[in-house]
Amino acid sequence: MKNENQKNTLVSLFRKTKIISIRLYRHKGKISVSKKENLNTAGLNIKNESYGFELKDGTLGPSVIDISSLYGETGQFTYDPGFTSTASCESKITYIDGEKGILLYRGYPIDELAEESNFVETAYLLLSGELPTKEEYQEFELAITHHTMVHEQLIKFYNGFRSDAHPMAIMCGVVGALSAFYHDSTDVNDPHQRMIAGRRLIAKMPTIAAMAFKFSLGQPFVYPNNELDYTANFLNMCFAVPAAKNQISPTIARALDKIFILHADHEQNASTSTVRLASSSGANPFAAIAAGIACLWGPAHGGANEAALNMLMEIGSVDKIPEFIKKAKDKNDPFRLMGFGHRVYKNYDPRAKVMQATCHEVLKELGIVDDPLLQVALELEKIALNDDYFVEKKLYPNIDFYSGITLKAMGFPTTMFTALFALARTVGWVAQWNEMIEDPSQRIGRPRQLYTGYDRRKYSKLDVR
Ligand code: CMC
Q: Model-level pTM?
């Protein structure tokens, strides 16, 4: 115990020394820190005044410059629209190396998880940090597959929507409304309530998404079935009708389960950052996840799978591809090849690799060999991968390029694609939300700005304007 205390004291002394050295580092003119200290600090010179900031190393990936004291010390902010060079938090959940095409959940490569694991186990891993033991898995699976029903009153919400409502519009509304039904799991400071809220969200999301689908079809809602596993239950709620017996293909269920695994988390993307920012104010988890769903909906993010398939349908035939490639390359045309490019992956999207194989498995299972959309997709992929514009800008097919074709083949309309993404990503959102709340350094997220509007001016009355 004494040794442990001594060790802690040494560590904190070392840290203090380092911070003092950073403070000493600030002076007019030349930087005068030792070489060793220089390795741990990043120098910044503003108007001939030098400052040093601590470099923090992660276990993998680039180190970060801790600029949390920048404003206090220098009176300046950093400017980074789109957060291209900004780490917004510390996280142990997901690691991406965009250059090498690596995606790890809690250290495990995505392709191994997609092959060997299942969505429920992957959810446990993302939430807890470790793969479950047999007992832990059984307890978790039971909780997730036996809390799938939603409050009966919530079902009435659906009738308030227009029949042509987009499922994502319904999801935003219904998930946000969960906080009006589950009051016993909205205290974010209580770890038990957080656990219940997280499990509720993961368990009920398939029911909410399937009901949005059924509502759009004008078919009766199908209640969850505890006999089925997570993904088979979702397929059943989507495709079963009271008049006929529903058969679920194990190949299709497994393929969809893989799609859920691939979409479960993706570190600090736009919707996850939205969830973190929304909940940094102490907002309840249902409201925060509804905010994440709203952000995911956009075509540059989760909405890209829907947009990619709509684009393939618009192209329609292989001979039209050059026309669309030309449009995508034209700077004056806002058109982009949907399903191509990624902010982080600049070589290939490791999820797209698994998704491409899954897509072929599904098409084979369903006997779809000559699908014109698939022909367009394959040809487009070939042309884009060899075109200078796409090669130079490192624009590779992303996960959404293949997931759209796969989901369509399974029988989902394009409007459901992003809803399925939201279902899977709920796991990542919940894991990241929990991590944020447990982080002692967590404060309300409050970015600053570079103001370029008017200076102070005097109000003029309407009759003199
Ligand atoms: N088609 C044509 N040109 C493109 C495309 C595209 N899909 N994507 C990027 N570019 C060009 C862009 O015009 C720009 O050119 P220039 O340098 O000459 O101005 C350059 O490539 C860099 O683009 P950017 O918009 O600065 O890159 P970004 O990192 O901000 O955007 C992106 C990433 C995914 C939003 C973008 O590539 C895009 O809009 N892709 C299509 C939408 C899509 O498939 N999104 C799904 C992403 S994967 C799912 C997820 O993780 O959410």
A: 0.87
161, 193, 214, 215, 233 from 218: Cα distances, Å: 12, 36, 6, 5, 20
The minimum-distance atom of ligand 1 relative to the CA of 340 is: 7
The verdict on whether 57 is a catalytic residue reads no
Q: Whose CA is nearest to atom 45 of ligand 1?
A: 300
Identify whether the C-beta of residue 204 lies closer than 8 Å to the C-beta of residue 178.
Answer: yes
Neighbours of 345 (CB within 10 A): 23
Active-site position among 400, 439, 455, 463: 400
Residue among 265, 342, 345, 421 to mutate when testing ligand 1 (max atoms within 8 A of CB) = 342
pLDDT tens, N- to C-terminus, the chain (465 residues): 334 444 333 333 333 334 433 333 333 333 444 444 567 889 999 999 999 999 999 999 999 999 999 999 999 999 999 999 999 999 999 999 998 999 999 999 999 999 999 999 999 999 999 999 999 999 999 999 989 999 999 989 999 999 899 999 999 999 999 999 999 889 999 999 999 999 999 999 999 999 999 999 999 999 999 999 999 999 999 999 999 888 999 999 999 999 999 999 999 999 999 999 999 999 999 999 999 999 999 988 888 888 888 999 999 999 999 999 999 999 999 999 998 998 888 888 899 989 989 998 898 899 887 778 888 988 998 888 899 999 999 898 888 888 888 999 999 999 999 999 999 999 999 999 999 999 998 899 999 999 999 999 999 999 999
Query: Residue 244: beta bridge partners?
Result: 241
Tell how far the Cα of 95 is from the centroid of ligand 1, in angstroms. 21
Nearest to 322 by CA among 368, 382, 276, 270: 382
Residue 131, burial from CB neighbour count under 10 angstroms (0-12, 13-18, 19+): middle
User: Ligand 1 pocket by C-beta < 6 Å: which residues?
Assistant: 266, 269, 300-302, 304, 328, 336-343, 393, 395, 398-400
Q: Residue 221, Cβ neighbours under 10 Å: how many?
A: 15
Does 360 participate in catalysis according to the annotation? no
